[in-house]
Amino acid sequence: MKDFAALFTAVDQTTKTTAKTKALAEFFISASDEDKLWTIALFSGRRPKRAVTTTQLREWAAERAEIPLWLLEESYPIVGDLAETIALVLPPPGRESDLPLTHWITELKSLAALDIDSRKARILDAWDQLDATERFLFNKLITGGFRIGVSRKLMTRALAQATGQDEPSLAHRLMGGWTPETTSFHELIEADDPEADESRPYPFYLAYQLEDPPEALGSPEDWQAEWKWDGIRGQVIVRSGAHHVWSRGEELMTDRFPEFARLPDFVPNGTVLDGEIVAWDGAEPYPFNTLQARIGRKTVPKKLLKEAPVILLAYDLLEDGGIDLRDASLQHRRTRLEALLADLPGEVPLRASPSIAFDTWDNLATTRAAAREHRAEGVMLKRLDSPYLAGRKKGDWWKWKLDPLTVDAVMIYAQQGSGRRANLFTDFTFAVWNGNDLVPFTKAYSGLTDAEFRKITAWVRKNTLQRFGPVRQVRPEHVFEIAFEGIHASPRHKSGIALRFPRMSRWRHDKAMQEANTLDDLKELLNAYG
Fold this sequence. Notes:
By secondary structure, the chain is an alpha+beta fold. The protein is built from 18 helices and 22 strands. Helix 6 packs antiparallel against helix 9.
């Protein structure tokens, strides 16, 4: 654990990627295979399941520190992180140990089988032999909130330096449904395994938002345009007579979309498609909120299957007949994709995402302006000679999204943030007018500068009307422009409306609260774009 804590400290104390990469590479060279495997797992989101509640941790820590629980609770918002708060209030350890990271993760995994008193005894015993940094990391593992400033790309680069393997190969190995319980470091990283996990997807190629005018990209004839659909980016894999569905976040979602179970009957083995999973009305996508009803479900009832059937709008072919096509040009991959899908029966939930014909950038801009009418967020631009790369790269793939929708709203509630913004009010509830009443309709917590957050925090502290736990009701006065990507009806909200990706785009010092938008204004947007 000391080596892992030293790695964390080295990574946490620098913003330089070269320094982080060096620290990781040195760890991957010197650590045991078991600790290396768990480090890779932790940095890629594969954490042990939580076996102790945060309420229990608070109580046990306060008891061990011999302080009242209220004092720990008051300290938490100031520190901004529960794991760090507990590590700070605990007394110095009574003894020292040099047990490895894998030991402590095994210890955490064993808690689930114990009664509550035994869990408490194990946690207290661990705290008594770990130093402050080790306790902090141990607490993060307990709460399931382990996050560190290391991207998967950076970790892959460090692994490449430590093992001598190339990054693309390692990136592919780290994809899929592996866990430290189902593999070893040798099997995952070092072994020559021609029969690798058949379900494993390829690393996704991601686009940057277009910031300059499209004319800066050169001749339109070098580019392919297509709609930027508002669904779930995914890869659908057909290998060895089975199918697998992966989200861009590397979540295996096969069971959530049973419609794709028919694909092995129509699509050849050795096929990997990249595209957008959308709810489909037979001619075009439904709004995103229709699909959202299915996202969090492990199983889908028949009623929902009927109300929100899905298809894959495929825009790339990554593997054809077991042959990796990623190094081929987009134009070549697109030709093969269209040939593969040309003769599929209509009932198969698979379509090629249509390309958009255009001969000038002005012509494409006119088409893009109508994106919401097609249930799209804008257009994608892809260079025809581009290979399919891994991760976010600038140059060949761009997303040209529509400007967001906006409304002006009044702030009525405020709540403190977390982490480095624990001392600031950053989470706000906004309302619009319904007659003479202000009706809450959305929350937002991003979009302002640190200086603006500090200014509004000072104002909130002086203008609090009531407190409801961590939430403060404030005097309605300040108007903010709220930007959002979509709007839909929602019976769960008092306003009857919910927004997609709301954020604060401007603090409207120039507007009085009486000038904020109305609920009728929102309903007009709902009728136009919902």
